Amino acid sequence: MAEHHTAAFVRTEILPEQAPPVSEAGIIRWMRENLFSGPLNTVLTFVGLFIIYFVLKEYSPWLRHSVWNAGSVGECRDIVTAKYGEGATGACWAIIRDRWNMFMFGFYPRELYWRPTLALGLLIFAAAPVLFSESRLIRMWVLGVVSVFLMVAFPGLDVPNGDTALLAVVLVGMLALAWMRPWSLLWLTAVYPGLAVWMLWGGSAWGPTLAMAGFVIGWLAWLATRSFGTILSVGAAVLAPVLWWLFGMAPVQALLDASLPAAIEGVRSEKFGGFVLAVTIGVAGIVLSLPMGVVLALARRSDMFLIKGLAVGFIEFIRGVPLISLLFVASLLLNYFLPPGTNFDIILRVIIMVTMFAAAYIAEVVRGGLAALPRGQYEAADSLGLDYWKAQRLIILPQALKISIPGIVSTFIGLFKDTTLVVFVGLLDPLKGITDSVRASFEWKGAYWEPYIFVGCIFFIFNFSMSRYSMYLERRLQRDHE
Amino acid sequence: MSEAKIERKIDRSHMTVTDEVAIQITAMNKWFGTFHVLRDINLTVNRGERIVIAGPSGSGKSTLIRCINRLEEHQSGQIIVDGTELTSDLKNIDKVRSEVGMVFQHFNLFPHLTILENLTLAPIWVRKVPKKEADEVAMYYLEKVKIPEQALKYPGQLSGGQQQRVAIARSLCMKPRIMLFDEPTSALDPEMIKEVLDTMIELAEEGMTMICVTHEMGFAQAVANRVIFMDQGQIVEQNDPFEFFNNPQSERTKLFLSQILGH
């Protein structure tokens, strides 16, 4: 209390809020604070500006002289020389234009390009009810763009019997569902894994259908044994589908193939390449590694010694080994251990290894999220009588996963970029496998920067989208103040 | 220690204590590692009793009530709640927990759920009540704690006192037969203590069996029918509130009371 304030004082009215003075707002203030706040920062600002100028000056001619139409590197050079004089340099993007299909599809049969394209489009439709459940605006924007992309791409893809009209009808139907009843699209989400496998690899439709039926069998087994206790019913729910996949599926499929053949042209894994390969491995790895990582994280925090020990052992082993060595195990060693004659698909093997690798990292990220929750949340859930699984599902994991979003998405981005490592087990990844084989041709020998920049840009689009989505999700789940 | 004035005249006439035993604790001991935190606790709580547990920090009073719904495990002795003995049998534990409500010092609301969802979660998932009915029950209790208008907000948007009243309502939605309060007003601003105490008094007037760990001696005088004083993991003294405050027997109790009531 100030001493000169001797008289008693009572405020009778509350002062209104006032706008801040001009010097506290606007671009001038921003520049003063961020660029010129002191002598050192002022110098650094000018050094930075000079570096930007230098880079632009050196490389902008190369970009400005880009050539989009040419048949070979030599033609590109001739065009640049003719236009900009002797000694001028120019980017030769014609290589991308000429070998676009190679970058996208690898050696996938040309007449079947529509299948992976449609699979990618349907992926977004299958993911939309999960990823964009809360905002119709964003959902419709994303799906609208995907629909337009499919409609534009399809006429050029040799779709059998010109089925673009059918596609348009299906798309309009699904867009209407996404607008009015997004949850009904969850059916697509549920069948999508089998559908995607069938569309990508082709062959009998019964294979993926019966494999997916294994999950239904597991669910039925759980329902049937539920009254006998948790351990028994979980055991039954795991054992029944495994037995089905190992022994029951093959004879049933043979029977169905004989009586009701439903096969489309098959594509072997060796034909996969480019971004079809990267996205296949990346999406499968992302979708499978999240639940596996969450289970591992819970197992690592378990009170049960055996479960905890197994989880710790798995996580530490996988994290301690480079991904490439796991991929070598997948491609070489597994062949020695498996009985001769077994045909264990190479892409499937790679997906399993990539999934385990990412799951180990996600487990640690999620464990961090679990540890960050105050003990009171566990106690409140317990004190209300929720059992372990309900407490985890309803209280603990929603909060722990929200905390873990940045780490999880970082792991996903890392996983997607690591799909390029499959080049070491003989698959044609977009970065090195495809680029090398494109440059091995006579026409494009000598093109160096362009394919890498192009592949880098595509990866950037995917990864930046994931990054932005994770920021959107964090904002959407923000509950502290509104 | 600041004390909230309890202005309302409290009618104790219908706060009847029955002969029916609600909680029976016999020769119970608990250790944290090698630290003997609860020593030979014997306590019987009848239905309708309002018990206040007081004592210096570290005396084991919170640990004691946390043993009653098995948030803490006791190592010897017996705890029987509503006829069910607490052992390592998970079914018994979940049964007791769904009958015993608990209110925490730090509220422990679920921040990712709305107030209404906080209240309906356990009825829907533990008691299998249909959602519509659970919503109605939740709104009834929200009106009882006088914040129905906050139903669709998130806990982070509410004041501490409001959050604690929501926490009380959340417990009540499970229709518990016993309520445990673990220092429910200790994390609150003085202005908000009263609103929470008012809610608790209302609950007492309806005959709820309550055990409260609290430093609100005004509340103890007004509502409790028994005050228990704990020190060093033991029950040092228990008596009815009038005798406890006016005529404490043990030296430790006298010292404690002189310190918290001295100014």
Percent of residues in β-strands of chain A: under 5%
- Helix content range of chain B: 25-40%
Unreliable spans of chain B are 1-5
- Count of separate DSSP helical elements of chain B: 9
Computed Rg of chain B: 18 Å
Please characterize this protein's 3D structure:
- The complex is a heterodimer of chains A (482) and B (263).
- With 482 residues, chain A is mainly α.
- Among the domains of chain A are: 22-60; 273-476, MetI-like (MetI-like fold, Orthogonal Bundle).
- Chain A has 19 helices and two strands.
- Chain A has a two-stranded antiparallel sheet.
- In chain A, helix 6 packs antiparallel against helix 9, helix 12 (274-300) packs across helix 15 (346-372) and helix 16 packs across helix 17.
- The model of chain A has no long low-confidence stretch (mean pLDDT 89).
- Chain B is of the alpha/beta class.
- Chain B has nine helices and ten strands.
- Chain B has helices at residues 61-68, 90-99, 115-125, 131-144, 160-172, 190-205, 217-223, 241-246, 251-261, and strands at 21-32, 35-46, 50-54, 76-81, 84-85, 100-103, 178-182, 209-213, 226-231, 234-239.
- A six-stranded mixed β-sheet of chain B has the order 6-7-8-3-9-10, sandwiched between helices. A four-stranded antiparallel β-sheet of chain B has the order 2-1-4-5, with helices on one face.
- In chain B, helix 3 (115-125) packs across helix 4 (131-144) and helix 3 (115-125) packs parallel to helix 5.
- The radius of gyration of chain B is 18 Å and the shape is globular.
- Chain B starts with 20 loop residues before the first strand and ends with a helix.
- The model of chain B is unreliable at 1-5 (pLDDT under 50).
- At the A-B interface, helix 16 and helix 17 of A face helix 2, strand 6 and helix 3 of B.
